Amino acid sequence: MTTIHSVTFEVPDPTAADDFYATAFGVGAHVRTRAAQPPATGFRGYIMSLVVSQPSTVDSLFGTALQSGATALKPPTKSFWGYGGVLRDPYGTLWKIASSSKKDTGPATRDIDDIVLLLGVDDVAVTKRFYVERGLSVTKSFGRKYVEFATAPVRLALYSRRAAAKDAGVPVEGTGSHRLIINTDADAIVDPDGFTWEATSLPAR
Q: Is residue 204 part of a domain?
């Protein structure tokens, strides 16, 4: 299985950003930051998704993120698939926090079951083939609509760019840097949509 042990966000102030991610989500070593201000406007082409067990966990994580400076794009609500919402953090990254459950089944927690990096790509079939040719195994595939790979501890998935933007509730337009680095123990690569993988070690907890 290919390892994606963390992602790195390029931000103007890494210390402040680290404090935000620790307070808002408690994502630990799976989210890093580094100082950079590459040009970027509009949608950056990806969404970070936190999958949790129940609505109260969604509300807890959403609430601390808003208190720490995030902006709600889609407030948490019930839908046919479960319960969840989308926000933009103070550094421009979009976060979807969701549960497949519509009702709480136990005491409120802040436990995160899965972290998913959802890339919005120009052509799902082309990007899927790129990753398969480099050894990633597909676990789910729905034509040119959605693909999920066997990566851990951060899972990797693909949407079309337009579908990802619609899911997040933002305009599809955007230019410049993704401001995202995917950290892996595999070879460094750049995919067809310009997402960069770097070979890096997992920091000690």
A: no
Low-confidence ranges of the chain (pLDDT < 70): 202-205
pLDDT at 202: 62
pLDDT of residue 139: 97
| Short-list 86, 92, 77, 73, CA closest to 20 | 92
Predicted pLDDT of residue 21: 97
What confidence score (pLDDT) does residue 157 get? 98
Inside any domain, residue 153: yes
Specify if 41 maps to a domain. yes
| Closest-CA residue to 199 (of 3, 59, 11, 1) | 3
What domain range is 160 assigned to?
Answer: 2-199
How much is the pLDDT for 205?
45
Number of structural domains found in the chain: 1
3-state secondary structure the chain: CEEEEEEEEEECCHHHHHHHHHHHCCCHHHEEEEECCCCEEECCCEEEEEEECCHHHHHHHHHHHHHCCCEEEEEEEEECCEEEEEEECCCCCEEEEEECCCCCCCCCCCCCCEEEEEEEECCHHHHHHHHHHCCCCEEEEECCCEEEECEEEEEEEEEEHHHHHHHHCCCCCEEECCCEEEEECCCCEECCCCCEEEECCCCCC
Q: How much is the pTM? A: 0.95
Does residue 205 belong to any structural domain of this protein? no
CATH number for 96: 3.10.180.10
